[in-house]
Amino acid sequence: MESLSDTKWDVLISGTGLQNSLLALALSRSGKKILHVDENVYYGGAEAAFSLQEVDEWLEKIQGDISSKPFRNASLWKAEASDGTAGLSFSRAYTLTLSPQIIYSRSKLLSNLVSSKVYRQLEFQAVGNWWIYDGETEASLRRLPNGREDISQDKSIDNRAKRSLMKFLKFVVNYENLTETWEPHADSGLAGFLSRKFQLSPSLQSVISALTLSFEPSDQIPVKWALPRIARHLTSIGVFGPGFGAVVPKWGGAAEISQVACRAGAVGGGVYVLGTGIKTSETVTEDGEQLSKVELSNGENVKTRRIVGKNTGHDLANLKSVSKIIAVVSSPLTSLFQSSIEGSPLAAVSVLVFPSKSLPEGTAQPNPVYIMVHSSETGECPSNQCVLYATTLKSDNSKAVLEAALSALLKSTEDDEGKLLYSLYYEQEQQASYASLDLAFNDEILQAVEDQWKTIMADDNGTLEGSFMQFEDREGMNNDDDDGDEGF
Amino acid sequence: MASDESLPTLKILMIGPSGAGKSALLIRYCDDQFDSESSTATIGVDFKMKKLSVHGKAYRLNLLDTAGQERFRTLSNSYYRGAHGVILVYDISNRESFQAMERWFEEAESNAMPGAKMYLVGSKLDKTNHRTVQYEEGQRLAELHGCGFCEVSSKTRENVRKPFVEIVDSIVRDPKLLSAGSRRSGTVNVGAGGGEGWGTGCAC
């Protein structure tokens, strides 16, 4: 077998995060020789998913490196296994993901996974209910309307408010053609815009703002940023079935996509080495061609035409950071997943939104908190438990805010009160762009992959051949083996 | 072949060290081809499909090869998801490949779903002159892990159907395993989109 150094690689890719894994897939299936390495011993980079034991190893690494990026300040809490209640299960019963992003039905990622045939190795599940927390009402979790009929039947909204809401919804799905309504207010805050232009109440402003998944409070979300995201939410509902507008791949979301993309890249001839990074690289000229001579951390020297590194980010002055908690709870929280829409699939993910300043008094909450609740159907935890992924913008007290939101959630559901079994706190800094922190998959990432692919594919001959992520079937259907009964 | 979509589907994986003959076995079984020149890692297929009947009932096999990811032991967890059976292959003329099997069993047992069936295969039976692993050694290892065992030659076709037929037989005897691999009702088919968002229709 050829050694790594015998091959002249077209592209050496370092890091198996989602973006690089999709790029490796696109390039290898377009005929490029790809060497794909990752300094980590696991796939997925910042989008990895872990068993409990792998979390411990990850934690140790982050705690031992104060300059670690993009994760830092990680800490872990586990409930004492004592009082007779069922505690945590074994390590591999869990797949805790660093990237619990939802993927909207109209995201280009899905159409690319379909055209590249990779989707068949994935199992997508519905993101069902969205809930909004309102500390001031008695029923403190309110389900967001999931369709037009839902709104007309919602008794908590009076008729005048309903008319205002319908007027806004009609506007927002067509916002691109109705520029005169919003362009003068493009940079204003969303809350004020909804109030002035559509007479929406503060409570409905919170509902609409929740759909943007913005880390900022509703009065600070720029209108021009919010409208496409609200429209995306609304126009996504029903695309793949009634009652939901987004999906999550089973077994850890983006973590699973990057693994499946890497396998498909290997099927296309890409070579994978984990636990191996780039140590040094220098430019050399060979047969009149400029190559990079790279020393890998496993001691091998390889030659490659191009290197795609990790997304180290530009020198942005104000990099955003978020605080996150991954929590395991001793209850399936079934009531959060029940659907009111006939014919909708059993949802595996629910989204809970805590608007800024909504938590009970005593917790200063400057920014909204989002909790993605994953049921055991996601394969991420044993049945009778669920995993909560909580996120808020990093602030002085963001850890306390997340903990308060988790405890408020557990008190507000109709289910038997679940107990916290496990709580992993960490902070994550944005990488190349805000998209790396987005709670819904951001198509900018796919655009970046396509741009990289185009640059590399046009490299040799100046013209672009083939189309991005459009691949022929790579599966063989063979003759039947119908005489298999012999011997039985 | 569209009618095959309705058949119960079994996912079966091939694993084992590089050069053990996994792809050769798969290609001989599925395509009845053998290329003695091909020694490098095969540029693979996502998976191969084959229809197989046991006890008069037809099944669709999805057979997955390692696509070279065994070389640096970088098979991902996702490779093992939902697999009903794992065929572990070593080369009877390469002692090292046999010695590596314990680690491959470990990897398979910790990654595959509980109850998934294993099957051990000693390949390159045509190379008996260069045999360094005795039949009994393979048999003992298989017994230790409670799984089936045979030796095959992809070159001469000897026994090439046996591992597949026997592992499928042991899978279908276990109804719990059979149902564990099937997709739940909550699965969303993203390949069949085209519906309308609720905001795009008539506003009446």
Task: Write a brief caption for the model.
Chain A has 488 residues and is of the alpha+beta class. Chain A has helices at residues 18-29, 52-63, 108-115, 148-153, 159-172, 179-182, 190-198, 202-210, 223-236, 254-267, 398-412, 443-457; strands at 8-14, 34-38, 49-50, 71-78, 96-97, 103-104, 124-133, 141-143, 246-249, 271-274, 278-286, 289-296, 301-308, 321-329, 349-354, 369-375, 386-393, 420-429, 475-477.
How would you describe this protein?
The complex is a heterodimer of chains A (488) and B (204). Chain A folds into three domains: 1-50 and 253-311 and 440-460, FAD/NAD(P)-binding domain (3-Layer(bba) Sandwich); 52-93 and 124-146 and 240-249 and 313-429, Guanine Nucleotide Dissociation Inhibitor, domain 2 (2-Layer Sandwich); 148-236, Guanine Nucleotide Dissociation Inhibitor, domain 1. In chain A, strands 4, 6, 7, 8, 9, 14, 15, 16, 17 and 18 form a ten-stranded mixed sheet that branches. In chain A, strands 10-2-1-13-12-11 form a six-stranded mixed sheet, with helices on one face. In chain A, strands 3-5 form a two-stranded antiparallel sheet. The longest helix of chain A is centred in the last third of the chain and has 15 residues, at 398-412. Chain A is α+β, with helices and mostly antiparallel strands and 488 residues long. Chain A has twelve helices and 19 strands. In chain A, helix 1 packs parallel to helix 12 (443-457). Chain B contains seven helices and seven strands. Chain B has a single domain (2-183), classed as P-loop containing nucleotide triphosphate hydrolases (Rossmann fold). The radius of gyration of chain B is 19 Å and the shape is globular. In chain B, a hairpin with a 2-residue loop joins strand 2 and strand 3. Chain B has 204 residues and is α/β, with parallel strands linked by helices. Chain B has a six-stranded mixed sheet with strand order 2-3-1-4-5-6, with helices on both faces. The N and C termini of chain B lie far apart (45 Å). Helix content of chain B is 28%, strand content 21%. Chains A and B meet through helix 3, strand 7, helix 5, helix 9 and helix 10 of A and helix 1, strand 2, helix 2, helix 6 and strand 7 of B. Strand 19 of chain A pairs parallel with strand 2 (47-54) of chain B, so a sheet runs across the interface. Chain A: Pfam families: GDI. Chain A: One of its GO terms (biological process) is small GTPase-mediated signal transduction. Chain A: Belongs to the Rab GDI family.
